[in-house]
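Weekend entry, working from home. Most of the wet-lab plans are on hold until the incubator is repaired, so I used the time to fold the two sequences that have been sitting in the queue since the last round of cloning. Logging both here for the record. First:
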Amino acid sequence: MQEQQRKGNWWALLPIAVFLVVYIGVSLIFNDFYVMSVVVAFLIAILVACFQNRKLNFENKLSVMANGLADKNIVTMILIFLAAGIFAGTLGRDGAKTVADLFLSFIPSNYSALVLFIVSCFVSTAMGTSCGTITVVAPIALALSQSTGVSLPLLVGSVIGGAMFGDNLSFISDTTIAATSTQGCKMKDKFKENFFIALPAALLTIVILLVFAFTSSGTNNYVPEKINVWLLIPYVLVLVGGIAGVNVFIVLLSGIATAIIIKLALGAQIISVITAMGGGASGMFEVIMVTVLVTMLSALMREFGGFDALLSGIKRVFKGKVGGQLGISLLVSAMDVATANNTVAIVMAAPIAKTISEDYGITNTKTASLLDIFGSVVQGIIPYGAQMVTAVSLTATSAGTIIPFLFYPYLLAISAIAFMVIPAFFTKKA
């Protein structure tokens, strides 16, 4: 058995192929990537894995899956998912709407795309969800376009770009939690690694949107709703605490407590706050279940030699540290194209990525950063992803018209590749 694992066994990856055939096949048949439950698809894949590796009986396979779950990082990730969900549920969308209205109440309409991008960056970083950000800000983009005549695809593309900025960087984003927990690194360290890659992309996006602003004109006819800045305090608290390196549980619990106090002080009924907290936790159940199932599936495939086979294939194609980083990036990108869910893609790619990073001498923070970056890049671009589907449904536009204006995801990919290649070039030259 040990010899088989050392050489690798490509048949051990069959459950992943089955998952992709079931998930994508059903989605294509019904022309809807959300009609098939990802949980059901993974259960089928686990069933296939249980029929493999006849050297282990079913009881031993259960032990393999249980041992895979007996990992501190998995437990930590699940608890953070729950705490982040409760925080987001407690505040709801009120705070995010306040941020958008605060900026848009005094900015000229020719700067609308720029402002929407910046607002979406802040809101998504504070909320930790790209879809939540798009749900809040996309209707504002539609209203702005209708009242000022600014291109709707440009505005919506700016919203999606800003939403993916925070999805990639936020301390309470499920993708950040998944990437850091699976790679065993601190969120603060991953944020620093990630921020310096994301910053050039964000600045170049701002420059491009400024060019659009200078070549257009208009007046602001958008009328914001009532602004309540108190709702911003919990977001700012979580953001500052995370950057300062405070323990993530302390940060989230402080944010939840502050959010509860503020909501009650503003007149919310305690029963509604309790219900919102429960709703936020419930919203994380599918992500948690997928995490558990993927961990079990990964343990079975690893035991049967699947990871060794995949790693061997990557080593034959990609050479050196830059090659290893490209391998990780392509791995998570392929998973996201297949699943249309960057959190699931990260959880699926994470065990293999960790092995690659160890073999190629890539730091765990760099690996976590690459997983999160390329998961976000692909997720923000694919027309059947939840982000694009949400934006299209809320603004009555089409994915084809929006895709050319997704400046930030494209630039983020370019920046990430540059940060792989340029340091290696100078090191080699020296």
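Second, folded right after the first finished:
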Amino acid sequence: MNKILVLYYSRHGNTRQMARLIARGIEKVEGCEALLRTVPEISANHEATSDDIPQDGDPYISIEELQNCDGLVLGSPTRFGNMAAPLKYFLDQTSAQWLSGALIGKPASVFTSTGSLHGGQETTLMTMMIPLLHHGMVISGIPYSETELLSTTTGGTPYGASHVAGGDSKNAISDDEKKLCIAQGKRLAELALKLKS
């Protein structure tokens, strides 16, 4: 079974909902299984630590799960046009995997959620790709054959799925956004199978 890692950070739950939709797309592909994982918060208090297991939601990622995955879908809310610090903090700890080449040739894609339509979705998606490129991963976006890219009035980009959560983070994920999340997961799983064979 090919394990496709859906690794995300979510503050208000929107990115988590997207991750679950992407996982649904992955599991539409025979021979692929989605592994949903998150990262802990970062504390301004250098002595504060998180529990090893979150009280609710998906488990925290381990370095071994990243190293052994057959593909990666990385998700974060935008923070001034970049991924959120907890996700970046985790990736900053992957030097050993970079040195060993553990992720070279594996497929990856990215997704995000913003408070506003022009809240930095595309820059967040592009900057999230940079560490994955340094790891030698094969980056996949969403092609315009997914017609929702042409009709969406909410989120959705060729760089990866996106969601416009609204200033209060309470906008429901639109039908177009849902379809694009599922399509992205399915596409990455299919690519993982092709690359592995």
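Plan for Monday: verify the second prediction. The beta strands are 2-8, 32-38, 71-79, 82-83, 107-114, 138-139, 162-164.
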